[in-house]
């Protein structure tokens, strides 16, 4: 296996490449051809459609939040992503690799959220960190022989960490339950979301080319922001309805094929031992 | 030079995606366990998705949302690939008692 100690040079090399490559690239002049592009409306500042926003003049830096907090988030998430990925390809223990993969996926979901892809960040957590990783864990548990490094919390430090985590969880849960007991009508007293005007949005504004001009549609800006479920869903179900349905068919075929491939075949082989393979 | 660290551009996300894709490629080429290879393929798909979303953010508007649709479809296809691939790994392990891709050379020569 490929788990020598020299592997830890790899992140240093990658970070060095990142720093060196990023320096000239960010100094380049911006991209010119965004005639129909618009700044994403997630910041909810009501800007007139024709008026250029201050961020747009900066070219390559257009639309990215240039605060130090955002930069700090980016570097932390990038480190988590690359560290998790390196963890995946260097660990001998499969469960460790899967856990590194889960960390990578969560960090990538954070990066997607930084890119205003809120819907895809949620999908990333649900599908990748949830479903696909559970599938991997199941297969690892099926395939791992029991003498292969059983994964357990080892040492006093691990037990202390686990105890602290359990205490924190119990404290938070009991706090929430306590609050509910104190204020039984807390849910009804909360701020009501504005009603979604389904009839208007389903009728005249089905043209996806026009539905996203800021401030023209009847939709409120909060739910129709760039990258929200509503915005992505409109494009997906109007322009890309056929690929969407084709992908659903692909998933169905994959499920049936997975069952057909992984099903045990011993009984048929016993009955027909002379069938040529 | 410190501007690189404090000012985020689309290049940061693209270079991060490239590094992630490179790590996935190294995993596919170097590891012999079929499960690790499949996880590396998932890493590469995520790197592609990060690239798509970075460009979607860069362009904005309807073009960006088309990129989001593409990323959604990539995630669905990756889920299908994981299901079929893991079924194949389970089937291979059931007949051969290992999942070492260097020893799975039945179709070679």
Walk me through the structure.
The complex is a heterodimer of chains A (277) and B (109). Helix content of chain A is 59%, strand content 0%. Chain A has helices at residues 9-26, 68-90, 94-114, 118-143, 155-182, 186-189, 198-202, 229-238, 241-262, 266-271. Chain B has 109 residues and is mostly helical. The radius of gyration of chain B is 18 Å and the shape is elongated. Chains A and B meet through α1, α2, α3, α4 and α8 of A and α1, α2, α3 and α4 of B.
Features of this protein?
heterodimer, A: 277 residues, mainly alpha, 10 helices, B: 109 residues, 0% strand
Structural class of chain A: mainly alpha
* Termini Cα gap of chain B: 54 Å
What is the string of SSEs of chain B from the N terminus onward? HHHH
Mean pLDDT of chain B: 90
The helix-and-strand class of chain B reads mainly alpha
Largest interface by Cβ-Cβ < 8 Å = A-B, 91 and 72 residues
The oligomerization state is: heterodimer
Helix percentage range of chain A: 55-70%
Arithmetic mean of pLDDT of chain A: 69
Proportion of strand residues of chain A? under 5%
In the predicted model, the low-confidence regions of chain A spanning at least 5 consecutive residues are 1-7, 19-63, 147-151, 196-220
Helix and strand run of chain A: HHHHHHHHHH
How is the main sheet of chain B built? none
**Rg of chain A, please?**
25 Å
* Count of individual beta strands of chain A: 0
Terminal CA distance of chain A: 33 Å
- Quick one: overall form of chain A? extended
Poorly predicted ranges of chain B: none
Question: How is this fold's topology laid out?
Answer:
The complex is a heterodimer of chains A (277) and B (109).
Chain A: H1 9-26, H2 68-90, H3 94-114, H4 118-143, H5 155-182, H6 186-189, H7 198-202, H8 229-238, H9 241-262, H10 266-271
Chain B: H1 3-6, H2 10-30, H3 34-59, H4 61-96
Helix pairs in contact in B: 2-3, 3-4
How would you concisely characterize the structure shown here?
Chain A is an all-alpha fold and 277 residues long. Chain A contains ten helices and no strands.
